[in-house]
Amino acid sequence: MKRSTWQWASQYFREYGTSVEVIKHSLKVNEIANFFAQKAIEKKIIIDLDLVDKASIIHDFYRGVTDKDHQKKGGEILAKEDFRLGRIVAIHGLKSILDKNAPYTIEEKIVFLADKLVLHDSGVILDVGIKIDQKPARQWREEAKVKVLKMLDELFFELGTSAGELWRAQKKN
Ligand SMILES: [Fe+2]
Question: Which of 128, 147, 149, 158 is the most interior residue, by most CB within 10 Å?
Answer without folding.
Answer: 128
